[in-house]
Design brief:
By secondary structure, the chain is of the alpha+beta class. The chain has 5 helices and 3 strands, in the order H-H-E-H-H-E-E-H.
């Protein structure tokens, strides 16, 4: 059991990782990016948020390795970094639905 319970730096990283999911805006952005890659303008319009807010949240998501970027000319497109992000969201939704909330 002791080997399974995270401690130290791993625990710190897990706390930071799950803190990213504890924000309405970031969850909405992750959900949108699970459907399609988008630029800041697209996300801003879709989520009805100003571009500064979207850019700030994308920077946090990128620093947490949840989103990646792709440049096309002057535009930067954001997408989820890998399938783990979708799995985490899906598992969270499955848990909520399972518990009857």
């Amino acid at each position: 059991v002791n080997d399974y319970v995270p401690e130290g730096e791993i625990l710190d990283e897990l706390v930071c990782f799950f803190t990213i999911f504890a924000d309405y805006t970031r969850l909405r952005m992750i959900s949108a990016l699970a459907i399609s890659e988008m630029c800041v303008t697209d996300l801003s319009r879709l989520l009805r948020l100003n571009q500064t807010t979207v850019s700030h949240q994308l920077r946090l998501l990128r620093n947490a390795h949840l989103v990646k970027t792709r440049r096309e000319g002057k535009s930067i497109f954001y997408s989820l970094d890998d399938d783990h992000v979708v799995t985490i969201m899906s598992q969270g939704l499955a848990h909520i639905r399972h518990t009857g909330r």
